[in-house]
Write a structure and sequence with these properties.
about 260 residues, alpha/beta, 5-stranded mixed sheet
């Protein structure tokens, strides 16, 4: 939940706020917690007091109002609303030079899915995430921050105006790998794709309703699919339409990063 007047974002969830305290305590301008959570944040309260920050004990109902969710887990930290840096060629050139993989999200609209993808990306060491400047794409919100369980502290999120232009610009520089249900290659081919190309990989994930867009698909070097049970035995379709995109991302990241 954003406080537009103060340009703040509410960060909630016990593990999320503790990770924020550990990695970037300076981001926290105000801290509110329930009585039972008070012993866990003594050190942070002292640090806030030294720089004249605000901290207060509040009832759970007040935390719900501050965060806009019942899932605050007894603590809410207010930070300046993050500004997402626009991606440019200097940044992508540094990825290529350093062999860093990246992730492009093609209109992932659900904040919880976005947060879960960030968490998985952080777990597997994929720190570069690109999102389009599109109303259909979720961004950094209270919900996505909470679901990421501290993952937001370990990734860099960039924005682009046109995913198609980005993919064109990265042609022959990164291996552009899209995920879709009509792909012929299994996701376990990712290691072979990466090793053969000797270039960093850009993974593109689409939304659950429509997958990656046609223009994105046309600008991919490879398309991969997560095989369902029975697929290799000729079963024409899975029992359900597809995996949740956040679940799918974990499988894809594992296949990409395994030795």
């Amino acid at each position: 939940m954003k406080n537009k007047q103060n340009n703040e974002l509410a960060v909630c969830g016990f593990a999320t706020v503790k990770k924020l305290e550990k990695n970037h305590p300076e981001k926290i301008t105000r801290l509110y917690f329930t009585e039972d959570r008070a012993p866990s944040f003594g050190g942070l309260c002292k640090a806030l007091a030294k720089r004249h920050g605000i901290y207060n004990m509040k009832p759970a109902e007040d935390l719900e109002k501050l965060s806009g969710t019942v899932h605050h887990q007894g603590v809410v930290a207010m930070i300046q609303a993050p500004e997402i840096q626009q991606l440019d060629s200097d940044i992508t050139d540094s990825w290529i030079e350093n062999g860093e993989n990246a992730l492009l999200l093609d209109r992932i609209g659900n904040a919880n899915n976005f947060g879960a993808i960030v968490r998985s990306a952080a777990f597997f060491g994929i720190k570069n995430i690109i999102i389009p400047l599109d109303e259909a794409q979720s961004s950094i919100t209270t919900s996505s921050y909470r679901v990421a369980e501290g993952g937001m502290e370990y990734v860099n999120i960039y924005s682009v105006r046109s995913t198609a232009r980005l993919l064109e610009a990265l042609k022959n520089k990164m291996v552009r790998v899209g995920t879709c249900l009509d792909a012929k290659k299994s996701v376990n081919a990712l290691k072979e794709i990466k090793d053969k190309a000797k270039k960093p990989v850009l993974i593109i994930l689409g939304n659950e309703e429509n997958g990656i867009s046609d223009i994105v698909k046309r600008n991919c070097d490879e398309l991969v699919i997560i095989p369902w049970a029975g697929m290799n035995k000729g079963q024409s379709e899975s029992l359900v339409d597809s995996l949740n995109v956040a679940q799918a991302s974990s499988i894809i990241f594992y296949e990409l990063m395994k030795d």
